[in-house]
UniProtKB/TrEMBL annotation:
<dbReference type="InterPro" id="IPR013087">
    <property type="entry name" value="Znf_C2H2_type"/>
</dbReference>
<dbReference type="GO" id="GO:0005634">
    <property type="term" value="C:nucleus"/>
</dbReference>
<dbReference type="Pfam" id="PF21549">
    <property type="entry name" value="PRDM2_PR"/>
</dbReference>
<keyword id="KW-0862">Zinc</keyword>
<protein>
    <submittedName>
        <fullName>PRD15 protein</fullName>
    </submittedName>
</protein>
<dbReference type="InterPro" id="IPR050331">
    <property type="entry name" value="Zinc_finger"/>
</dbReference>
<keyword id="KW-0479">Metal-binding</keyword>
<feature type="domain" description="C2H2-type">
    <location>
        <begin position="186"/>
        <end position="212"/>
    </location>
</feature>
<dbReference type="InterPro" id="IPR001214">
    <property type="entry name" value="SET_dom"/>
</dbReference>
<dbReference type="InterPro" id="IPR046341">
    <property type="entry name" value="SET_dom_sf"/>
</dbReference>
<feature type="domain" description="SET">
    <location>
        <begin position="38"/>
        <end position="152"/>
    </location>
</feature>
<keyword id="KW-0804">Transcription</keyword>
<keyword id="KW-0805">Transcription regulation</keyword>
<keyword id="KW-0863">Zinc-finger</keyword>
<dbReference type="GO" id="GO:0010468">
    <property type="term" value="P:regulation of gene expression"/>
</dbReference>
<dbReference type="GO" id="GO:0008270">
    <property type="term" value="F:zinc ion binding"/>
</dbReference>
């Protein structure tokens, strides 16, 4: 204590505790990379002060706007799994690796984008191009709308996941061509809509099941 001139263990009983000054909180790398027309919102607060975040538009974002590449650490296994986020993998040097983001200083803002649960709320499509993962808008995004993503058709096959059908999806995904299925259209028995592949028909029929 500078007032007593004594070295004490703990607080000075005469003059009390020191006034503690805290360092300024520095945003993480991921938060600093957020574009100025996007914002993070806390959607839920879980045990241990864990925040569930979502990415929202502050202004209109045009269709075919590309974001990326996704920043993460190449890993053979995930160290951090969140059921509300997409699991992403890339093919590099003949190997298949996860894009792992164990903390906010290992990734960019794209790690906060939540997955879309259905076609209606999907605003972004994720795809791999030249060993990187990008997100591209599939429709105009209005202000205060949350950005939500799902795999592009070809990337869904790579990830062994189901595809969510979005019209004109193929013109926003610069992916290598894949083997095409027969040209005869697949017809939905419920609404008579036609689809180029059986996989797209299956995804479409899931929407009918959800509504039922």
């Amino acid at each position: 204590c500078e007032d007593c001139g004594k070295s004490l263990i703990g607080e000075c009983k005469l003059h009390g505790p020191l006034i503690r000054a805290k360092d300024r909180v520095i945003p993480s790398r991921a938060r600093l990379t957020l574009p100025h027309y996007l914002t993070l919102r806390v959607l839920e607060l879980r045990a241990g002060n864990q925040q569930i975040l979502g990415v929202f538009a502050k202004k209109v974002i045009q269709k075919r706007t590309q974001f990326g590449p996704y920043v993460g650490q190449l890993s053979t296994k995930l160290t951090r799994y969140d059921e509300s986020r997409l699991v992403l993998q890339v093919l590099k040097d003949g190997g298949k690796y996860f894009l792992d983001t164990p903390n906010e200083d290992c990734g960019n803002w794209m790690m906060f984008v939540r997955l879309a649960r259905n076609q209606e709320e999907q605003t972004l499509v994720a795809y791999q191009h030249c060993g990187e993962v990008y997100f591209t808008t599939v429709k105009p995004i209005e202000p205060h709308t949350e950005l939500k993503v799902w795999y592009a058709a070809d990337y869904a096959k790579f990830m062994e996941a189901s595809a969510v059908f979005i019209k004109e999806e193929t013109d926003v995904c610069p992916l290598p061509s894949v083997a095409k299925e027969p040209l005869d259209p697949w017809i939905c028995s419920s609404c008579r809509s036609t689809f180029a592949t059986f996989a797209l028909l299956e995804s479409h029929q899931c929407i009918h099941k959800d509504r039922v």
